[in-house]
Input
Amino acid sequence: MKQIKLGPKGKQIRLLLLAMVTVGIGLAAFGGMKAEFGPFAVRFAFAWGWPGESRLVIPPLGEIQAHTHRWPVVLSATLERIDLPLLQHELLGVSASRAYLEGLLVKIRDYLYYFIAYLCLVGGVAGLLAGLLFGERRLAAQWRMAGVGVLLVLFIMGGVVVGYDQEAFKNPRYEGALEVAPWALGLIEEGLNRLPEFSLRLAEVAGRMNTVFAGVNTLSPLANVEGEVKVLHVSDIHNNPAAVEFIEKVIAGFGVDLVIDTGDLTDYGTALETELNRKINNLGVKYLFVPGNHDSAAVVARLRKYKNVIVMSKRIYETHGLTIAGWPDPAGTGTGSLMPGDDELKAEAENLRAYLATAGREIDLLAVHNRKLATPLSAGVPVVLYGHDHKMAITVENGTVFVNAGTTGAAGLRGVGNEKIPYSVALLRFARQDGRYHLVAVDSIQVFSLPGKFILERTMVNTPGTAGVEAGDER
Output
């Protein structure tokens, strides 16, 4: 058989491909560098991954992630050590916190330059190795291959830097222990002002990681933001007592002011089922409940006896500066079947639109169980909460933000053993502007098992008049 020989151009292409593979492997294997500045020790790391994102990792608390660029590169900064005595000593002498923070940021930026230089060195060594593997023995050829490796790294990092979006950190994703999620978001929002609290919480949580929810009550002051009203949206508990425990921890950890439940507390609508979740009566905050198709008149009657529960029945309520309309599912009022058909839901939706049209009041929020009751929607409703389909979602349509809390009870008995169905809630943050509260952010919170993986993702909502979701119309 005749052997095919590669020409000079073919050899160059083969050598370039080998260099690319070697550089890629080298960056993945050796793309980490430790940096120390002041009381902090941080490890910067390069990894391949899609979508491109930046991560702040704080063991054992968790990590904050943001989709900052389009290239398939994951850049992470892992906090490996804090010298607490040194940090406290430095903070005692700080009169201008912003200047101190800016000084830290300058040091971090300098180390990022060193990190890029280090990655170039790794790329150069990898290119040199590629040349040796290809059989290049000439010194000039080896230097060229080292240069190719450096250029490949500069090309990769240049692509990341050119398209880097710092605004992505306004919509962060948090993974870790539920107890420290309020602090984690506060770290991004307030920077240096959180450092003393951060030191204490790090020491506390590091020593008590045997329980995911340990010490959550000590964190509740960290969640309070002046002038903000936080509404916790829950739905579809379906007889799961663990859901109420989950709700209780979120209320304490995030400083929740009000809970709105969009229905399906039970499965079969018996008063006995309501007893499974009687701890709702002891949550310590007002609890607005919109009956779903699994909630009977007997369930509603039992809930009306709870001192903190208000069952919303085709009317408008005012609380915490918000004007809220609640419209129960036809089945929840005892006037329809357990699974209302499209015609029945359509007729009820028309009743809702007629009520809102004649009410003569602007509302801040509408709560229903089934989204079909709000389809189509009357004009001027800025926020709609719903559930029913067990799928967490945040969407925007014609200036209205629709929020589905998913299933706070992980689908109840139907979800037992299915780790793909998370416990989920949505935390809505309202801020006052022009004399009225407006939705500014939604935190979607999911726990895939109470002692296991926890995910928090923030979605910023645009200003009034241009309502939208900054991170995309649907998540």
Observations:
- The mean pLDDT is 81.
- The first strand starts at residue 32 and ends at 37.
- Residues 351 and 373 are 9 Å apart (CA to CA).
- The two ends are 58 Å apart (CA to CA).
